[in-house]
């Protein structure tokens, strides 16, 4: 699977802390129900989704800015010393249907402190209460706002899971528009194919403590909302090579116990073939969006690689 210089295995064995966290995750109620029926039932019965509040201590750790764009809340964290040389636009994951998790705040903080960057976090409205077009409108507005006050080549688009999809989709829209382009694209376990069609995922599924193929397909159908889930618009994995070639330098991080690793490997190969400066980093035994477990050696390695990526 690791062909040429496209992918690199960073850790051949999960750290003790990572294994302990996965052990606990297996014994907790899953974030996403493990059946499509359970997922649809949970979605139909939920109250209005609310983002996890930013920790109060962040007001002392960072310079915090809050504003509203496209009728949605946006938060920016700067280092205490002032705005960073790089500005990251980061989209949180949650299958497009879940709001900001509490673990996303420490993840954002670690990126600010390790990489000395500023980070903007759109707290976008989720599906099905809002449409995908509402999410895209906020993403477009956030980048346009940043590009007015920052050199676009010093903006890095990033996100995890569905948020990785959003960051990639934004980069592709910007490339098609031919306007200012971001300088980097950094994806954490991105969701690249809503149809989950690659049968190689069946071998990974028993090891993934968070994600199940059937539930993800049901989620993808809700997000697509009548569009073809296999279209490049919904599933960036199928973007034509001539469009992929316009992407900026790209890095992808994912665990080997994550369903999305299958498509990440395929996508990394497509980026390579399109001539994009790209690389995939893999971590043995690591679950979906493992970098959100910030104290682990694996997460710290990710943050160090991100720092190197921005300094290269």
TrEMBL record:
Domain of life (superkingdom): Bacteria
Keywords: Hydrolase
Signal peptide from the UniProt entry: none
Cited SUPFAM superfamilies: alpha/beta-Hydrolases
Alphabetized InterPro entries for the sequence: AB_hydrolase_3 (IPR013094), AB_hydrolase_fold (IPR029058), GDXG_lipolytic_enzyme (IPR050300)
Keyword S-adenosyl-L-methionine in record: no
Domain Alpha/beta hydrolase fold-3, residue spans: 88-291
GO molecular function, a single term: hydrolase activity
Pfam families recorded: Abhydrolase_3
UniProt cross-references to PANTHER family, sorted A to Z: AB HYDROLASE SUPERFAMILY PROTEIN C4A8.06C (PTHR48081), ALPHA_BETA HYDROLASE FOLD-3 DOMAIN-CONTAINING PROTEIN-RELATED (PTHR48081:SF8)
Protein's UniProt name: Esterase
Organism: Erythrobacter litoralis
